[in-house]
Amino acid sequence: MIMACDVVLLMSEEGIHMPTTTSQYSGLPNKLVRAANGVDYAYRDTSPEASGVPLVLFQHFRGNLDSWDPALIDALAQNRRVVTFDNAGVGGSTGTTPDTIEQMARDAIAFIAAMELGQVDLLGFSIGSFVAQQIALTAEPVKTTLEATFTEFLGQILLHVKEWK
Question: What are phi and psi of 99, to 5 degrees?
Fold first, then answer.
């Protein structure tokens, strides 16, 4: 699959509304999906039936599904589908832990393809932001359409990735 992307900062003047009730994310079951690379990826999906572009999150170094703040995930999931996952060799996922950002990105692309998500938005935290950027750089057409629009803000970026036709 070839993808193109636009970069958008995940910030607003109002900030993010953090719910004070019991977390939906904390109660989600961990699921597994097998990718073409042979890795079984552990993931949580806030609303698989939701329409619109899903948001895929990328964790910090050594972070796993339980490292995300449930209040943040619940806030992000108020109006859209949010998917978190453990990359290869991390947490509940099988495989070998990658030792480069490039391999982390290839593994993440394999997960996204296995989930058959098509068009996605990407949100990376810390090292996850580098993985998200690498995903955008991996597809050949993206290299000519990115221009100088990449921005990193406190290690968090939101990438809007769509299938390139």
Answer: -110, 10
More confident residue, 58 or 20: 58
Helix axes 101-114, 127-138, angle to 10 degrees: 70
Residue among 4, 122, 114 nearest 57 (CA) = 122
Residue ranges of domains in the chain, CATH in brackets = 3-17+29-163 (3.40.50.1820)
The H or E element spanning position 161 is: strand 156-163
Identify whether the C-beta of residue 2 lies closer than 8 Å to the C-beta of residue 141. yes
Q: What pTM does this model have?
A: 0.74
The CA distance from 144 to 2, in Å, is: 13
Task: Identify the band that residue 120 occupies on the pLDDT scale cut at 50, 70 and 90.
Answer: confident
Check: CB of residue 164 under 8 Å from CB of residue 6: no
